[in-house]
Amino acid sequence: MQNLPDCAEINKYIKEYFQYLGLNNTMDCFEAEWKQKQSNTRQSKQNNQIKNDDLPRLYLLLKSDNNKTKREINLEKEMKAQNKKYQQILQAGRQIFSVSINLLQIMHSFKESVQNENLHETLENYKIQLGKYQKIIINEGKPEGNELITETVMQDHKTKLFKNYKDNNIDGMIEALLSLRVNALQIAPELRKNLVYELIRNDIFDIEASEKFDFLIKMLDINNQSLKHAITSLVSVVSSTLRGVEYLTFGNKYAVIEKIIKILKEQENGSVTQRFCLAILQKCSIKESVIPVLVEQGMIDWVVHLIKKSTNGKIHVFCLDFASAMLANITHTPYTLQYFEQHPDFTCQYMENLLKFIRDNIPVSVLMHILICLSYLSKDTFQQQIDYCQFVEKISEFVEFYSQINTSENEAAEIDKKTVLDLCAHMFHPKDTSLDNSTTLELNELKTEDRIREYENEQGELIFECFQDEVSQ
């Protein structure tokens, strides 16, 4: 037990906070009640004693008390464990580089005896790429790039890419493409948007200069999985901004989109190349003029089939997340809604599948995307399908079922549960806020292209996809 602390300083902060928010009535009530409390305290000295464990967090914070909650202690333990794993990964990376350098030295010793004019250039390119990755390891994962790739380097890569394409040198094409991507991954996140703009300005795929997509399409047509991986990974970098999407659909032509869809459908589910194809298509789906191509190419059925497969087997979560996000982008557009109106049987089947998915064991991010899709179908226009599928009843059953899930032992799961239920409250009960504990969640209106441009201008930072199992490609 200890003496009750002098709370005058804390009260001052609280009153300043109320004044800042303009809560004058609340402040008056607070002062009146505090005076009453002080009067009662004088009558009983016993009330001047308080357990240390019962002290409010605000007092402990202002008095620099070192007491930590159970959650803070657990977070510290997790941080130490993560840091230990991080150091192990760095050490493993250093060992890999050591082995790689030794292998390069061995290859150099055979260079003179092998009659291959491209071997020297290949070895030099490998050394350059290893050097770039080594810098990332030395900097312990922190991007060191404070400058963009120079004009000379960018043009040099483009020249090499074109030369290797004309010479039908697949290994050379892969090296040039991967080298560009390594530069993209190495650069600081806040500079990546400008890097994408530089790739477009230098017309890396010769789209604007030729006003055609022949160069990119012909590279994608080459039957080599490593080359497809190298191209799609760089196309994914370019498509990370709306300007990049417009570059890939130059002149409102969609040959690249159609080719990426074809490659996607040829890939094994969950493969690295499939992930990059989905990343490209999901990013391109923010442009409404792309949606008709996605619908006509059967991407709605393809995504539904992928999610179905995931309920019976393992599908990479990235594929599910990006595919379902693309599905939400497709579903919300006027073109697709009109398509649904014109194809009532298709819409009914689609609605039935989505309503079934929400009760399946799927990742939370995918569940949210499916709920968003369902919200777009929750319109009078589709009343016949809504009645046939028992839409309202199944959503109500889902909310009741999901609200009963016990997440008390898992803070992340509790946050996910709250987000899903808040989403349902906003989308399916827009006039009923009793289910909604959120004060920040907005209605499910996706950004227009103008707003996306504005967002990109403000944000600046981009995330480029990179997967651990790419090395096996």
Structure description:
The protein is an all-alpha fold and 473 residues long. Among the domains are: 2-67, no CATH class; 333-445, no CATH class. 68% of the residues lie in helices and 1% in strands. α13 packs antiparallel against α14 (272-284), α16 packs antiparallel against α17 and α16 runs parallel beside α19. The radius of gyration is 29 Å and the shape is globular. InterPro entries: ARM-like (IPR011989), ARM-type_fold (IPR016024), ARMC9 (IPR040369), LisH (IPR006594). This is LisH domain-containing protein ARMC9. It comes from Tetrahymena thermophila (strain SB210).
Short key terms for the protein model shown above:
single chain; 473 residues; mainly alpha; 24 helices; 2 strands; 68% helix
In short:
The chain has helices spanning 8-21, 24-43, 57-62, 70-111, 119-138, 151-166, 170-186, 192-201, 207-210, 214-221, 225-238, 242-248, 255-266, 272-284, 291-296, 299-312, 317-331, 334-342, 344-357, 364-377, 383-389, 391-403, 411-428, 449-459; strands at residues 2-3, 49-50. By secondary structure, the protein is mostly helical.
Report the mean per-residue pLDDT as an integer: 80
Question: How much strand?
Answer: under 5%
Return the string of H and E elements: EHHEHHHHHHHHHHHHHHHHHHHHHH
Cα distance spanning the termini = 65 Å
**What is the percent of helical residues?**
55-70%
Poorly predicted regions are: 431-448, 451-458
Helix-strand makeup class? mainly alpha
